[in-house]
Amino acid sequence: xxxxxxxxxxxxxxxxxxxxxxxxxxxxxxxxxxxxxxxxxxxxxxxxxxxxxxxxxxxxxxxxxxxxxxxxxxxxxxxxxxxxxxxxxxxxxxxxxxxxxxxxxxxxxxxxxxxxxxxxxxxxxxxxxxx
Length: 131
What we know:
Layout: H1 5-8, H2 22-44, H3 59-81, H4 84-98, H5 104-125
Helix pairs in contact: 3-4, 4-5
């Protein structure tokens, strides 16, 4: 799917234009390459022995994944019903808090920097809107 099906459904560009397939193909190559590395790493570590815990994921990992999924769900709801800017703040600050960040400077500076950078890049530099 990643190598053949998805890239084949992207239209070709006219002569002299950058192909719209360029970035998706680059991303597919990166995803497939990282997947191969992950599979090799998993195969190399398959012989853990009897001391290996039978659970694939620890309780902490499952709780953290559920927290992050909840933050994403809240950010999507805020995006749909309130504001994209506020959804970005919820996503960044919520994720930082879930990962253990408690410093007020980081909780303020990171969302402001990231969202201001996105705004400057898309609206000012590229002259497009993110809709």
